[in-house]
Amino acid sequence: MNEKNESRRDFLKTAVAGAGAVATAGVAPPAAAQNAPMQMDHGAGLGAFFNPEEATTIAALTERLMPGAPGKPGARDAGVLNYIDLALAGAYSDMQEFYRHGLTQLDAYSRKTHNAAFARLSERQQDEIITALESGKADGFTWPTAREFFNTLRTHTMEGMFADPIYGGNRDFAGWRLVGFPGAQPQFTQTEMQSKAAYKGGTVVGLQATRKV
Question: For residue 201, what are the domain limits?
Fold first, then answer.
């Protein structure tokens, strides 16, 4: 994994590692928890909001923001695409046009810059485009602006990585395991409460396990 990938991972991990409340509910849209969401099957084009082309682009974008590595889950492993798709079909439905416009502008910029859709570019080229978005230097963006689109996508990637799995992301507690967050434990020992090290014991538990049928 290169230095840029590590810095992205470190940024997202640092943003939640010290905030247990954020990892459970604070970053997730509460309306999305009406029912336990199913993982989407984009291979069959079965998304809640995104069409297959949009889904492919979002999957590529979020993976570059939170890239996986051996022993370190990334956005694909955690189901970040599924989280964003479900959120846009529910609690974040007011952002549907924001995403659609952002993706259209991204496609135009990608084709102008590298003569191909974003998802078909090399990782190096994808990183160049993401850097241009982050710095606001990607031209052709009106609404949302390049920086607005980047910041929103980065925020939603973080949510999909670290929110409770009941919201459709953090598959198999991938994000929580990455930062050593244990979820809802029945009890902690005094030593565990005072330790500054990542929690290593017990089972990771999410909201789904505590829901009443």
Answer: 26-210
